[in-house]
């Protein structure tokens, strides 16, 4: 089924509609999305970008060539770029100062499908803006998700996609940030494709487990050699990773003591000899 078929009864003029895909592999996109500024980010455009355009449908690129529907917006007038009218902490991209800021008003176009409708953007994902007449295949409509709740440290079992959802939506998952930043600990990354294990640790100096796992959400590999090699060979390989916690400690626990505990778990799991630890 095509996107245009699903939205057929929503009164859109496809010739005056644009489709946008914000790819989380773009560092500026990811930082603004994490801060809740994605709508502000898409409002900054070249002066002619939304000319002869009434509506935009926005999607978030989370993996491969997919696009997750995040909302529809009515295009209003524009003003010259002025960073002072953007939120404090907004991350600018090169060339923005030459653009304009459009007034984009959220529309109630199938709001029940936000964060559930997934389309295939197609080849050439570098082209993030397409005309509304460009047909897009629907990959899936995900079932409604209940809120991701934190229950206990021993129950933590997160896919990479869920981890990134939590990290990039901190305002919606404050308890996760509060609980994971309150402890140091030893954690486990499991490669669900091969069964290989990676044992890591996080101390208070690193912002606790939250600080360390935030690095994974942003970089996919956290700077670990063997994980980085997997990502270099296949940028989407991170979606095979599963995150869990082996042991937690007080946030002020001495870093060397945390590292000693990490070494013990590496020996228990043979994660250097047969897993993904490099040392």
Could you characterize the architecture of this molecule?
The protein is of the alpha+beta class and 279 residues long. It has 2 domains: 3-141, no CATH class; 153-269, 3-Layer(aba) Sandwich (GIY-YIG endonuclease). The protein has 8 helices and 12 strands. Strands 1, 2, 3, 4, 5, 6, 7 and 8 form an 8-stranded mixed sheet that branches. Strands 9-12-10-11 form a 4-stranded antiparallel sheet. The longest helix has 15 residues, at 255-269. It starts with a helix and ends in a 10-residue tail after the last helix. The relative contact order is 0.13. The mean pLDDT is 92.
Give keywords.
4-stranded antiparallel beta sheet, about 280 residues, alpha+beta
Structure annotation, total helices: 8
Mean pLDDT: 92
Indicate the percent of residues in helices. 25-40%
Percentage of residues in strands: 25-35%
Low-confidence runs of at least 5 consecutive residues: none
CA distance, first residue to last residue: 49 Å
The main sheet comes to: 8 strands, mixed
Rg over C-alpha atoms, rounded to the nearest angstrom: 21 Å
What is the topological layout?
Layout: H1 3-6, E1 17-23, H2 27-34, H3 38-43, E2 44-45, E3 55-61, E4 66-80, E5 100-107, E6 117-120, E7 129-131, E8 137-141, E9 157-159, H4 160-168, H5 174-180, E10 183-191, E11 197-202, H6 208-219, H7 225-233, E12 241-250, H8 255-269
Parallel strand pairs: 1-3
Antiparallel strand pairs: 1-7, 2-5, 3-4, 4-5, 4-6, 6-8, 9-12, 10-11, 10-12
Helix pairs in contact: 4-6, 5-6
